[in-house]
Amino acid sequence: MFKNKCNTFFLVLIVLFANAIKAQNSNFTIVSGKQKASILVEDKEPKVVHIAAKMLADDVFSISNQRLAVAKNSSGIVIMAGTIGQSKWIDALVSKQKITVTDVKDKWETYKIQVVENPTATIKKALVIVGSDRRATAYGLLEISRMMGVSPWEWWADVTPDKKDDLVLNVETKTYGSPSVKYRGIFLNDEDWGLQPWAAKTFEPETGDIGPKTYAKVFELLLRLRANTIWPAMHKSTKAFYSFPKNKQVADDYAIVVGTSHAEPMLSNINAEWKHNTMGEYRYDTNSGVIKDFFRKRAKETAPFENIYTVGMRGEHDSPMIVGEDDSDSQVKLLEQVITDQRAILKKATGKDAAKIPQAFIPYKEVLDYYQKGLQLPEDVQLVWTDDNYGYIRQLSNPKEQKRSGGAGIYYHTSYWGRPHDYLWLNSTNPVLMWEEMEKAYEFQSRDLWILNCGDIKPHEYNIELFLDMAWDMNPFAKSQSVKTHMQNWASREFGTQNSNSITELFFEYYRLAFQRRPEFMAWNQVEPETKSKPTALTQIHYGDEVSKRIDEYQNLMNTAEKLQKEIPANRQNAFYELVTYPVVGAASLNHKWLYSYKNKFVAEQGRGSAAFFAKKSSEAFQRIQKETNYFNNEFANGKWKHIMSMSPRYLPVFAETTATTTAVEAKPELKLALESYEMEVNHRTENSYADVLPVFNAYVKNQYYIDVFMKGEGQVSWQAKPKADWIKISQNQGTLDNKENSQQRLWVSIDWTKVPKGENQKEAPLGHDYQLIPPSYKVNSAIDFVSKDTLITIGVSAFNPKFKELENYKGFVEDKGFVSINAANYSNKKSGKHAQWETYEGIGYAGKVSVALPRTATSEMDVQAIKDNSPVMEYDFYSFNFGQANVRVQAIPTHAFYDGKGVRCAVAIDDAEPVILDFQTFGRSDEWLQNVLKNAAVKSTEQIINKAGKHKLRIWMVDPGVMIDRVLIDLGGWKDSYAFPPETKM
Fold first, then answer.
1. What pLDDT, in 10s, does the model give residues 968-980?
2. What is the pLDDT of residue 1?
3. Residue 346: helix, strand or coil by DSSP?
4. Helices 212-224 and 134-147 sit at what angle, rounded to 10 degrees?
5. Model confidence over 454-466: pLDDT tens digits?
6. CA distance 10 to 1
7. Number of H helices, E strands in the chain
8. What is the greatest pairwise CA distance in the chain?
9. Is residue 984 part of a domain?
10. CATH number, domain at 788?
11. Share of the chain above pLDDT 90, in %
12. Which of 199, 179, 195 is nearest to 187 (CA)?
């Protein structure tokens, strides 16, 4: 009897389980032939649900040309959307046990989607969307649009949906939410050169500003990206958000929460709304009465809506608060009084306990100093940490702060106006860096508010989506490689699976180059105070010529984008231009403008006729930017985006056309040469010219070096290169020069190492020699003759090709020309520590990947013995041909300490020396910080002794978790100044 009951019980379970599996995935037909569903939304649903239903209907129409009815009653096949407690249809399904909502009810922004057969007597089949609140239901409706293949950027980036006759979805029963971050949104900032003129002159001329029509489009985008918060535009070029009464109503209609920046307390736009002639000075110590009246008015006006009130106070537009007493204690006490008064105003205006009203305190710039000096902040106020304006978060919640009831958030920049230099035109913030900083913030419990300063929205589209996708759900973003996966999925959705890998690789290269130096920083000038353009720190002499390398890298990037554009389907051509072509061509052309200008000045100093060619290339790059920007604004998409794109925000020197340097033209045409590693040309008239020998070729690193063949004078020169040994290889053996388009040719010299005679078979390298004076037994010498009609120039070639048994099958790094260069992620060996280990982050750093010490919760080690005993270590095997004092330079990503008591440190040593601690932390807006963020690199060094030529081991230990090591240079006296460390010298 018991056995039969058990069998029956298990049979029922099996049937239920099978039904459950079957119910998890169901086909649902939205449109097929003449059959189409309707969208069922009740009248009493919040306005945002009706808006989202119409958006979905519009999306269906854009795909199928079929218009779905949005109704409050329907039959047959329906998409049924409702909010728990707002919809009688949903409540009836729950009571009849057709759906369960225990995983949705009373949750924040949580929705569930499933197909229900015969939910009522008149409805045959329903695609049911049930939301825990108004935004959740709206997100659920727009989730259907995502399933149909509609991009969130359908309008904002013209991602035209693919046409389909039939729309049939395979729907998985699934619950979405609650989101990882409670409030998620964007800050429209520095809108003067794009969003504001576009709105005023193109999209909303009836308002003449960023008004309710523009905000409605912004809020549509936010809903599609499952965001819920806006910090409105606030510059003096734009009327204040609340000066248009309809703005706050539109925000509420779209269920968007309104907050304001660090400089706008209590939803007030000080820039536009504070009138000195009637309101007096904006300082709390002398004019608090008027300021409080101002706050009261705004609190009363906004009380009926969803808001996050910024508490505290700064000065007018991004300046410190004015106080009479110029001491920290007075500043802190006054700021505490401001917050106390603001909370009393909010309590009276809303009738709520202040602890129940969302408030944010943003310790930005000098306000962080006040907070660090002891400012007492109410427990329920959100602590919204900020980056340093260049992508590196200044501070995060310590263990005590992580327990605050108000929680914490992040205000992050991918666009910025200010010192040391703006970057307002293109999106140049590395997405893997943004992931690393936000993932770190999330780990340290900053989960209540994430705001991205994205400038004008365009061209920040991808990083906006990445930022908001992470804020919605951090689970898919566990590793650095998750960013590449996310980008591949983004590119696949926008431009097809067949193009997704190529586009992803294109963008990873775009961001790698921008990480080394943002396009807007290429004039080497600064702002506040504004300076003229300056000489570049990129070397044109050493390591293959950094300027020419960067020219070629950007040319390849541009060529790839233009080639891909031809392969994109017709309905995505406009989207590709906006999202890929324009930013890539813009970045490449701004780089080319300056790089060719630097090349022009460099060769002009040598009297080369090619100076005119490089000046022309610089001018062409400037004209290309003009052409593309004019097209974007005036021709593209039938003028939809007229005035949206400026090629020169703030009209800074970096955006101006460069000046050209000319050279005097000599009468007689003459062949000339310039070699890598020499500032001057070869003077063939002087015997034993110091610049007539190429740097030594090293068999262990397989070098190549360039020779520039150029001419001076009028006319034409034909030349030939004649190697004197069969092991010398040249990329070009002959050519013709003229003083028009072809006045310079770059040759590359390399070695066929299979043909070079071997040096002596030795156990060890020669000790302590000057690398350029290698004993004859280790160096093979020959030359190349360059011949023209009346000129012979001989260039010496030396190949270092010993046969050391120690280096047979060696896998480490090797000295070359007096240095060893290492990419930190390419360690020879690594060892875990007691509580931490070194891991690799891909897609960031000069080397394209970095080593990071994790977990971030690991204990910092400062004692030398504790470092050796407990810390994880990376080891790098290297071989030196010299010995003596060496300078070990370590390049890290310039992050900041998590919080007080933590640091950004590692320790290094060669062989058995004691670890030396290197500290990368900067403070405030120091000159060191300034240079670090311009270069996205922090470099520290220490002296070490290499006691003999031969094999050695460099060790790098973690001191603080989270430190990210990019590159290492061991300089034995041979390194010449360069912007980046030389390429790796790996066997």
1. 999 999 999 999 9
2. 47
3. helix
4. 70
5. 999 999 999 999 9
6. 14
7. 22, 40
8. 116
9. no
10. 2.60.40.10
11. 87
12. 195
Q: What is the pLDDT of residues 143-157, one digit of tens each?
A: 999 999 999 999 999
Mean pLDDT (the chain, rounded): 93
Residue with the two structure tokens 């079929």: 66
Residues 356-378: tens digit of each pLDDT: 999 999 999 889 999 999 999 99
User: How many structural domains does the chain have?
Assistant: 5
Per-residue pLDDT, averaged over 906-933, amounts to 97
Measure the CA–CA gap between 708 and 715, rounded to whole angstroms: 18
User: Domain check: are 366 and 279 in the same one?
Assistant: yes
Rounded (10°) CA dihedral 724, 725, 726, 728: -90
Q: What is the pTM of this model?
A: 0.95
Same domain? For 677 and 638 the reply is no
Which of these, 801, 982, 769, lies nearest to 882 by C-alpha position?
769
Pair 598, 535: CB distance under 8 Å? yes
CA torsion 578→580→581→584, rounded to 10°?
120
Task: Give the model's pLDDT for residue 350.
Answer: 97
| Residue 258: burial class (beta carbons within 10 Å; 0-12, 13-18, 19+) | buried
CATH of the domain at 257: 3.20.20.520
d(CA 405, CA 382): 8
* Contact status, residue 922 vs residue 855, Cβ threshold 8 Å: no
Specify if 845 maps to a domain: yes
Model confidence over 778-795: pLDDT tens digits? Answer: 778 999 999 999 899 999
Q: What pLDDT does 330 receive?
A: 85
SS3 721: strand
**Contacts from 205-212 at CB under 8 Å and sequence distance 24+?**
207/244, 209/238, 209/239, 209/244, 210/238, 210/239, 211/239, 211/244, 211/246, 211/247, 212/244, 212/246, 212/247, 212/249, 212/250
Bridge pairing between strands 70-71 and 873-880: unpaired
820/955 same-domain check = yes
Q: Answer yes or no: is pLDDT of 22 > 70.
A: no
Using the predicted structure, report yes or no on whether residue 273 has a pLDDT greater than 50. yes
pLDDT of amino acid 771: 43
Question: Is 959 contained in some domain?
Answer: yes
- Which residue in the block uniquely carries the two structure tokens 């408030």? 359
In a domain, 564, yes or no: yes
Question: Tell me: the pLDDT tens digits for 383-432?
Answer: 999 999 999 999 999 999 999 999 999 999 999 999 999 999 999 999 99
CA distance 571 to 161: 8
CATH number at 641 reads 1.20.58.2150
Do 446 and 534 reside in the same domain of the chain? no
Are 468 and 561 part of one and the same domain? no
Domain that holds residue 613: 516-655
Q: Could you tell me the two tokens for 20?
A: 């459950």
With CA atoms as reference, report the closest residue to 395 among 422, 427, 363, 370: 363
Label residue 249 by pLDDT band (50, 70, 90): very high
Which helix H or strand E contains 492, and what residues bound it? helix 481-495
CATH number of domain containing 63: 3.30.379.10
- CA–CA distances in Å: residue 821 to residues 446, 546, 891, 901: 38, 16, 11, 33
Question: Does 21 have pLDDT greater than 70?
Answer: no
Tell me: do 733 and 819 sit in the same domain. no
Kindly report the backbone phi and psi dihedral angles of residue 613, in degrees, each rounded to the nearest multiple of 5, phi listed first. Answer: -60, -45
From CA 612, how far away is CA 617, in angstroms rounded?
9
Q: Both 114 and 212 in a single domain?
A: no
Q: Are 424 and 518 in contact (CB under 8 A)?
A: no
Give the tokens for residue 893.
């990503």
902 residue type, one letter: K
E-state strands within 312-376: 359-361
Mean pLDDT of the region 918-928: 96
Question: What pLDDT score does 549 carry?
Answer: 98
pLDDT of 324: 67
* Same-domain check for residues 800 and 819: no
